[in-house]
Amino acid sequence: MATAFRATTRGYRADLEQHERRLLSSLCADVIELLESREDDAASNDAGSRNAAEDPAFAHFRAELAGLGGEEPLEPPEDDVLRRLLPDASTDPEEAGHFRRLSENSLRGAKIADLRTARMLLESTPVTMDEELAPVFGRALNDLRLTLASRLQLNTAEDAERVHKLAVGASAKDTDSFMAEIYTFMTWLQETLFSAMTEFLPEHGTAAEGADSNGPDSHGTDADTASGDAGPGDSGPRDAGPESSGGAGTSSR
Amino acid sequence: MSSAEGSTLSREGTDLDSEFSQLLSAARPYQVVVWNDPVNLMTYVSWVFRSYFGHSKARAEQLMMQVHEQGRAVVAHGPREKAEQDVTAMHQYGLQATLEEAE
């Protein structure tokens, strides 16, 4: 039985059983394969892109160029999971297609890299990771959850309840109840990881929060300076200014 | 990629960009919208808002609750290029995010 993620002096750690690690790792491999299949789709979608299909690096270059040139929008994936992992960036389909042409390749690459890192971390027990790798593992775990949720057609809060009941109630194991059980396990694991990670975030934030309201007071030079040279984790007490301007931005919404 | 480095860089970018756009008054402002879904955990969404945008705990939780209860929330404003970066970053975290022109 797995134990929750907890903070250690060197990062985070969870004790996972071998079959749990293998299961998560093989799910990562499945999602990597799915994401890679999209590369072929997107390339073959391109009219006259035989060279691009032969050379992934060239395909990427072409896609970037096409995006910059504002050429043909790229259609969203037909597969539900891929559409969830690589979502539209606009509610306007044409705008979304142009954005997709420009950015989908790099988003897909980033997700594949996250999942590969997660597989590497899952090779040893206990599963340990430093501060830098924890968000990477967390993102990969989230993508696995999104994948299973999509396959289980989990689209509403009611669906979430149905999946939960499926996970805890089923004694006869069919595919759906098995997926629901894994989904629930990963939800728990992710929750424990981010609960532990949250402890280490600065309470008052690091941003000049007035700036994100775009309000008339968003050009405060003190706040800009404070956020400009604050490294992650070393902001802390002197952020009293941004916090109070954040309050102002909040009430104006 | 390293999210910590990325967020520090992009915050610097925001400050510079917003100064330039105020000077030039040319770039139209865009906003980043995050949409509700039943999969992303509240803990996770708050963590992303705090870690990526550098929001305070209170502000991040308020935005997270707004997404949860109202179906969407504007989580960032800025010039288009910055907003595009933010949307892609949200997608990398698995959040449903879109770009729109600010009202």
From TrEMBL, chain A:
Disordered: annotated span? 206-253
What domain of life is recorded for the organism? Answer: Bacteria
Q: What protein name is recorded for this chain?
A: Uncharacterized protein DUF2017
Any Pfam family matching the protein = DUF2017
User: Where do Gly residues bias regions lie?
Assistant: 244-253
Q: Which InterPro entries match?
A: AosR (IPR018561)
Automatic annotation (TrEMBL), chain B:
The UniProt entry, under NCBIfam families, shows: PRK00033.1-1
Residue ranges of every copy of the Adaptor protein ClpS core domain listed in the record: 27-98
On assembly, the entry states: Binds to the N-terminal domain of the chaperone ClpA.
What the protein does comes down to:
Involved in the modulation of the specificity of the ClpAP-mediated ATP-dependent protein degradation.
Under InterPro entries, the record lists: ClpS (IPR022935), ClpS_core (IPR003769), Ribosomal_bL12_C/ClpS-like (IPR014719)
Record-given protein name? ATP-dependent Clp protease adapter protein ClpS
Q: Which family does it belong to?
A: Belongs to the ClpS family.
